[in-house]
């Protein structure tokens, strides 16, 4: 599989939970070619490398919420997720050539998502700026058309009264 396609596949497995971009332990295990249980055991043997901002356990409600998209999660008792930094740390815990190559692809996927986010954010800012700029123009254009309409209306002629008026 070409690197770009692999990055695209990995990017689809990055979720947003608690405002952070994360990957599920089972998805990472699949990419590394190990069992989820083995991956989690390796992490538990190295807990000091994985502070709360690198890895955290999902609550039951979070598991149920994402189990709609990942059916196998519904019956899981615990699910761990890893942030970008946690995934980077996994390469030191899972010391294999495959882990290194997979980590490189995962880091590229995170970078690609950040670039997409920034592009969308920049685009949204530009659209807002244009809306504000041209909102003023709408009022001015309406005033111009109103003035033109008034100029196009035939002038109202006053009736001249012939004779004497009392």
Description:
- The chain is an alpha+beta fold and 166 residues long.
- The chain has a domain at 3-118.
- The protein has helices at residues 3-11, 25-32, 36-44, 60-66, 84-93, 97-152; strands at 15-17, 20-24, 55-57, 80-83.
- A hairpin with a 2-residue loop joins strand 1 (15-17) and strand 2 (20-24).
- Helix 1 (3-11) crosses helix 6, helix 2 crosses helix 3 (36-44) and helix 5 packs antiparallel against helix 6 (97-152).
- It is rod-shaped.
End-to-end CA span = 102 Å
SSE order, as H and E? HEEHHEHEHH
Kindly report the average pLDDT value: 78
Output the number of helix runs: 6
Query: Which strand order spans the largest sheet, edge to edge or round the barrel?
Result: 1-2-4-3
Proportion in β-strands: 5-15%
**Overall 3D form:** rod-shaped
Structural class: alpha+beta
In which range does the helix fraction lie?
55-70%
Global Rg: 31 Å
Contiguous uncertain segments of 5+ residues = none
The description of the largest β-sheet is:
4 strands, antiparallel
Q: State the total count of DSSP E strands.
A: 4
